[in-house]
Amino acid sequence: LGHHAPNVNIEMIVSRLIQFGKLGGFHFNDSKYGDDDLDAGSIDPYRLFLVFNELVDAELSGAKGFNPA
């Protein structure tokens, strides 16, 4: 796990991992200045919604190899 550059499209990364049947790990927190470790969704809750929307979409569409715990 590592940090990503600011304004990276995380939901696109999630959808690509699902598309290619790959695992991914995410450390969800928010930051405004550096690594603030704020609660996930505290600054921009819509971005967190988009990530979970990709996960729900994969589950409902029956994505091959998608088997959440």
β content, as a range? under 5%
CA radius of gyration is: 13 Å
Low-confidence stretches: none
Q: Given the structure, what is the number of helices?
A: 2
Envelope shape: elongated
Structural class: mainly alpha
Quickly describe the structure.
This protein has 69 residues and is an all-alpha fold. Helices cover 39% and strands 0% of the residues.
Fold and architecture overview:
This protein has one domain (10-61). Helix 1 (10-19) packs parallel to helix 2 (45-61). 39% of the residues lie in helices and 0% in strands. By secondary structure, it is an all-alpha fold. It contains two helices and no strands.
Highlighted features:
2 helices, 0% strand
Topology, please?
Layout (H helix, E strand, L loop, with lengths): L9 H10 L25 H17 L8
Helix pairs in contact: 1-2
